[in-house]
Amino acid sequence: MSTKSKSIESKTDFNQDERLKKVSNLKVLLNRPELGALGGAILVFIFFGIVAGDTGMFSAYGILNFLDVSANLGIIAIAAAMLMIGGEFDLSIGSMIGFAGICIAIPAIYWGWPLWMSIIFAFSMAVLVGYFNGILVVRTGLPSFIVTLAMLFILRGATLALTRLITGRTQVPGLRVLIENDPIAWIFATDSFKWVFTWLGSMNLIALRTDGSPLATGIPPSVIWFIALAILTTWILMKTRYGNWIFASGGDKNGANNVGVPVGRVKISLFIGTAVAATIFATIQVLDAGSADTMRGTLKELEAIAAAVVGGCLLTGGYGSAIGAAFGALIFGTVSMGIFYTDVDTDWFKVFLGAMMLIAVIFNNYIRRKVTESK
Amino acid sequence: MSDYLVQFNNISKFFGKVIALKDVTMKLRKGEIMCLLGDNGAGKSTLIKTLAGVHKPDEGEIIVEGKKTIFDSPKDALDMGIATVYQDLALVSLMSVTRNFFMGREPMKGPPFLKTFDIEKANKIAAERMGQIGIDVRDPSQAVGTMSGGERQCLAISRAIYFGAKVLVLDEPTSALGVHQASVVLKYIVKAASQGLAVILITHNVHHAYPVGNSFTVLNRGKSLGTYAKKDITREKLLSMMAGGEELNKLEVELKEMNRSSVN
Fold first, then answer.
1. What residues of chain B lie within 8 A of the CB of A245, using their CB?
2. What is the secondary structure of B83-115 as a DSSP string?
3. What is the DSSP string of B154-195?
């Protein structure tokens, strides 16, 4: 026996294997899922730098403008990406945005709840909706595409019907006055780093209004949320056990189950994640606009999935990155705002969005083949 | 007190009226490789699932290290050190070698509530373990999808051993592999046994089983046709028992008859 095992071990010195090729850092980078989105974002900035460099797009105000749009999309795109890595879709994100909006507005305006309580109520509803989506998908084994498509209609319909029933209208205005002195609302409604902008304004480095205050007043809350979520989710995916379980659940449900990964719990938590992200999106927008609209968030679920795909997520799950989705959202946000600064008609934005997604899918498909092909 | 590591005595399993297994007995010592041979439909899958704790046997007893036990779930079997490597291997091809190796059992570091996946330690262990079995994991963060079938099989076995398997149940580990790959896997199985594990190798390929096995149990239509030590049986005898030798003999005779009549 000992001679046998010796003969096997003799040629297996790991460190001195002559077949061990040094892999360049470039190649490691090429294997990262977010590479395409990063490259795309750089291209987009170069393009607008050339085409719209002197139009004010890259003034403080212009930058914050497209960052705000990107960040709003990014918040839901990151959650959608996490869920896609976990192997599922959520098509009810857009409807959840509308639903969360009225969950804040109706209690606050019509039932006299304090605003903070309405916000907590909206988040509780999000957890419920997400849990329901998740448990339905996990228990029935039905494709999440169908289950959440049903939820898309149910939530949007319920939002419309309930709002009209309670208020007789489809919009609920009047929230702005409630924000002040609310213990929670500021988290979703306050511009940050105002002093930086005041200082920049006083140094005449950024544009000022006629009253001397800076045109760009501070970093909008969406951007702060976006960056925080991007960091948090990337940390979760790369550095935690739960992150490993997300990849495993999306990559091979049965395999993961067999080695003790609680696949069902992981997926349900990710569905809760998308619904909560939709509610963060809704809270920021509702407080910013001061009113809730039943149609808010329409089609946002598809934009979020598009951004996640551009960010390197595979539609089949098990592969992708949160930071990639963030870059994907940055691309879409930048182009959708940047197009105003060019001579191009804004109608073309959707064409760009579609083309971008198509290129991303083809690219991702190629990457996946490379990653999984046998040698 | 017996010196058997694990004993499955007179295991029977019924599904309604169907007798899937009847009085199957298997006993293994440390370092032993028992090959379980059987054609399609012989009851191999049912037996594996019974060994793995997925099915509870309707009759018979399971004795692990001298203690009679009942597996209520696959986790019970695993806790007793009986690890089953299924054909699908429970590997995710898009994930890295390391992430697969520690899937569901990640090493952690850091303070409570802020514990993180200790990826450096995991990489080191995974590379070390794969190196020990002669697989050059060029980079433990490479995707499992880039590995060959044999390497994946070895990874799955190596993972089971690392996490404390005493008895390895291997379901058709060589069926999807070429000759060279299969021999790599078989070599690894022998090595694992030589380190004190008991191995139950389930296969329908006598040519793979015969060189590595210490004893052979042949399963046919849910019943054991007996267990034979290697010195007591030839490869040809095993082959004919497995395939229901009588049937093949009869077929041969019939074919000869047909030939003769057509020549005349």
1. 103-104
2. EEE-TTTT--TTSBHHHHHTTTS--EESSTTS-
3. HHHHHHHHHTT-SEEEEESTTTT--HHHHHHHHHHHHHHHHT
Closest CA to A271 of A76, A26, A19, A80: A80
Q: pTM of this prediction?
A: 0.86
DSSP helix/strand/coil, B69:
strand
**Total tally of structural domains belonging to chain B:** 1
Domain membership flag for residue B144: no
pLDDT of residue A25: 59
Identity of the residue in B74, B90, B143 whose CB atom sits nearest the CB atom of A372: B143
Task: Break chain A into its structural domains and give their ranges.
Answer: 57-187+220-369
A-B Cβ pairs (cutoff 8 Å, strict):
127
B259 inside domain: no
Which residue in chain A is spatially nearest to B120 when comparing CA positions?
A239
- The pLDDT assigned to A84 comes to 96
The token duo for A232 is 């948090």
Quick: pLDDT tens for B195-230: 889 999 998 888 888 899 999 988 888 888 888 888
B chain contacts of residue A247, beta-carbon cutoff 8 Å: 92, 94-95, 99
> What is the span of the domain harbouring residue B41?
6-89+165-233
Q: Which chain B residue has the Cα nearest residue A17?
A: B136
Q: Which stretches of chain A score pLDDT less than 70?
A: 1-31, 371-375
Q: Which of B136, B137, B145 is closest, CB to CB, to A372?
A: B145
Q: Could you tell me the CATH number of the domain that includes residue B27?
A: 3.40.50.300
Domain presence at residue B248: no
Q: Give the ipTM.
A: 0.79
Please indicate, yes or no, if residue B246 is contained in any of the structural domains. Answer: no
Mutation target among B95, B113, B129 for the A interface, most CBs of A within 10 A: B95
The CATH fold assigned to A57-187+220-369 is ABC transporter involved in vitamin B12 uptake, BtuC (1.10.3470)
